[in-house]
Structure formats: C-alpha cells, structure tokens
Amino acid sequence: FCSELNPTQLLLRVSSGLRPEMGAGRRIPPRLAALMADCWRADPTARPDFPLVLQRLQDPLLLEQERGQEA
Question: How far is Cα of residue 31 from the mean position of the Cα atoms in its chain?
C-alpha cells in the first residue's frame, strides 16, 4: 500500500479515502477487519473512541477466525 510512496503521496492518498485492501490473500479475522474499517472512517465522529477500541481489542474472539474460514 505505501512501500513505494513518499510521505506526501501517502497523505494525499489517505486524505482522498484510499485505504489498504484487507483481502488480497490476507487472512485478517473478520472482527479485526471490522475494527480496522471503523477506525479508518473518513468522518472522525464516526470512528470509535479509544476506550471502545481497547474494549474491542480485548474481545477474546477478535483474533479467532470465523467458523469455516480456518485452514
């Protein structure tokens, strides 16, 4: 996503709404992907506050794969 971009290019892309893809062969647990997407929302008021992020990170199911996705 950003390995070949300088800081200014990265800032411009993120400011325009571009985010790293969470698919493309990556095995990101669905609950963690949802948390990441919530934190990346363009509207700052729609993002979770830090206590909620911590609460969600402490969820024991956060890093578990959903049934049927485990290899």
Answer: 10
pLDDT in tens, 40-68: 898 999 999 999 999 999 888 777 755 44
Q: How much is the pTM?
A: 0.69
Alpha-carbon torsion 53, 19, 5, 23, what sign? positive
One DSSP character per residue, 55-66 reads HHHT-TTTTSPP
How far is Cα 24 from Cα 48, in angstroms, rounded to an integer? 26
Distance from C-alpha of 17 to C-alpha of 14, rounded to nearest angstrom: 5
Tokens of 4: 């070949």
